[in-house]
Write a structure and sequence with these properties.
mainly alpha
């Protein structure tokens, strides 16, 4: 299944490259390069919306190479952006309409979706708070990374 997802993501990535979507995404985010905070907020909204309809692995495989040059041009640390991107896309695993983790949880527990959403809501809100804190205070991510780097 994982190989099928990667193969499909590769095919979609090729189609996206042929359609010159990376250039269009760069043009969309280009005006925000001067303001890294606004750029991060816009990219996070974009990733959350995309993550709602596409699974985590294809999103990473398709959009990380597209967004990396924009983030780099804005002077944002790539490791920091990678952490923000992964947290955001993991958050979107719990959001409808796809919500793969919610569907898996419903299948395993036998609970209806609405009851499971109600139970996961405090955790979703805490992840959103952490994501917002990481965006507005990059030192929360960067300082521990400096201690861990060789």
């Amino acid at each position: 299944m994982v190989m099928f997802i990667i193969a499909t993501a590769s095919a979609v990535g090729w189609l996206i490259a042929i359609a010159q979507i990376p250039a269009a995404v760069i043009r969309i985010f280009q005006p925000l390069i001067g303001s890294p905070l606004l750029l991060l907020l816009a990219i996070n909204v974009f990733l959350l919306l995309i993550g709602m309809v596409i699974d985590l692995t294809p999103c990473i495989l398709i959009f990380a190479p597209v967004l990396f040059p924009v983030v780099r041009a804005a002077g944002i640390d790539p490791h920091y952006f990678g952490i923000i991107m992964i947290i955001n896309l993991c958050l979107s695993l719990f959001t409808p309409p796809v919500g793969n983790v919610l569907l898996m949880g419903c299948a395993i527990s036998g609970l209806p979706v609405f009851k499971l959403v109600r139970g996961t809501l405090p955790f979703l809100l805490s992840v959103i708070v952490v994501l917002v804190l990481f965006i507005f205070f990059p030192s929360l991510v960067m300082v521990p990374m400096e201690f861990l780097s060789p």
